[in-house]
Amino acid sequence: MQKEVFSDLLKQAQHKLDRKTKPVGSLGKLETLAAQLAAIQGSLEPNIDKKRMLIFAASHGIAAEGVSAYPPEVTGQMVLNFLNGGAAINVLSRHGKMNLHVIDVGVDVDLSDSAKEASNFFSRRVTNGTKSFLREPAMTAEECEAALKAGYEQVQLAHEQQVRLLGIGEMGIGNTTAAAALFSALLNIHPEEIVGPGTGLNEAGVRHKALVIQKALDLHREKSGADPVAWLQHVGGLEIAAMTGVILEAYRLQMPVVVDGFIATSAAMVALQIEPAAKQICFFGHRSNEKAHRLVLEKLDANPVLDLEMRLGEGTGAALAMHLLDAAAKIMCEMATFDTAGVSDSEQDANKQARSASEKND
Ligand SMILES: O=C(O)c1ccc[n+]([C@@H]2O[C@H](COP(=O)([O-])O)[C@@H](O)[C@H]2O)c1
Ligand SMILES: Cc1cc2nc[nH]c2cc1C
C-alpha cells in the first residue's frame, strides 16, 4: 500500500482509539498493534478471527560442519512430531485456536505415506536439503525461486480460504547458522557479533560457528555483492526462502504476518530488503533469546510484541503474540467511546474550558 495511504489509515485508527473510554495512549503497545491491523486491512473494524500458522521445514548441508548441538535427523523427526500433534507449536496452535500447516520444502528424509497423507501436510520438497555453503552455494537460483514460490502458494491458499492472520515459523537443524550468515552479510555485521548458541552450542562451538560463517561469506561475497536474493541463494535455507516468499506475497495481498524468532526474522530482513514497504504487514512476534536477535530487531527498527526468553522456533513466539493481536483487534471493535458510554472526556473538557477562558479574555 502507498506509504501516504497507509499512514493516513494509521491516523484514522489512532483517532478511533483516542475516542475510546481510556486516557489517550493508555493501552500502550496494544494500541499500536490495533492501529497496524486496521491499516493493513483498510478497516477500522479489523477481523483476525481465522488464523493460521505456517511451519516450513528443511535440512541444511551446513549442519554437517558441526554448527549445531543436535544431529540433522532431528529435522525430519520433528516434522513427524508436528504431524502427530505433539510439539510445542501444536499445543500453542490449539490453545490459540489456529490451524497449522506443515510444509516440507526440503527435508532430507523419506517420510512415511501415512505422514504425507495428513491433511495439514504439504509436500513441496524442492531438493533434499541445501548444500554446505562453506563449500558451495546452498541452493541454485532455480531452487531458491521454487522455495520462494512455496511461500507464495501458502499465502494464496490462505487468502482464498479467508484466513485473516498468518504466522511463520520453521524447523531446520543448522538454520541459525544460515540466518546468522544472512544477517552478517546483509546488515554488514561481523559474524562474531551475530552468532549464538542456537539449540545449545558451548562457547567453543559458537566460536567455530562464527569462523565457518566468516569463511563462507568470503567465499560467496564476490557473487552475491549487496543482492539480498543472491545471498539468500548462497547462504540461506529453503525454509528461509519460503518464509521470505510468504512476506512478499502477503504484502501483495495485504495480509498481516506474525514473524517468529531469529530465523524467521532473517527471512523478514531479506523480504524487506527486496520490498521495504512489506514492513507494513509484519508483526515481530517476540524477541528470541538467541543473542543477536535484539541487535537485528533494532537494525530493522522492529518492536517485538513479547519477550519471554524463548528460543525454540517452530512459530511458538508468533503463536503467543497472536493472543495479543486478538486482544488488540477486540479493543478496536468492541470498546465503547466517550460518547456512546456517556463518560466525560477530561482532556476534551479541559480543552473546552481553556477555549472558553481564552474567548472571555478576548
Ligand atoms: O527462533 C529462534 O529464535 C531459534 C533460536 C534457536 C534455535 N531455534 C531452532 O533450533 C533449530 C536451529 O538451531 P541450530 O542450533 O541447529 O542452528 C531450528 O529448528 C530452529 O527452529 C530457533
Ligand atoms: C528437539 C528440537 C525441537 C525443535 N523445534 C524447533 N527447533 C528444534 C530443535 C530441536 C533440537
TrEMBL record:
InterPro entries: Nict_dMeBzImd_PRibTrfase, Nict_dMeBzImd_PRibTrfase_bact, Nict_dMeBzImd_PRibTrfase_N, Nict_dMeBzImd_PRibTrfase_sf. Keywords: Cobalamin biosynthesis, Glycosyltransferase, Transferase. GO terms for biological process: cobalamin biosynthetic process. HAMAP family: CobT. Its EC number is 2.4.2.21. Belongs to the CobT family. Catalyzes the synthesis of alpha-ribazole-5'-phosphate from nicotinate mononucleotide (NAMN) and 5,6-dimethylbenzimidazole (DMB). The gene is cobT. Pathway: Nucleoside biosynthesis; alpha-ribazole biosynthesis; alpha-ribazole from 5,6-dimethylbenzimidazole: step 1/2. Coiled coil: none annotated. It is an enzyme of class 2 (transferase). It catalyses: 5,6-dimethylbenzimidazole + nicotinate beta-D-ribonucleotide = alpha-ribazole 5'-phosphate + nicotinate + H(+). This is Nicotinate-nucleotide--dimethylbenzimidazole phosphoribosyltransferase. The active site is at E314. One of its GO terms (molecular function) is nicotinate-nucleotide-dimethylbenzimidazole phosphoribosyltransferase activity. CDD domains: DMB-PRT_CobT.
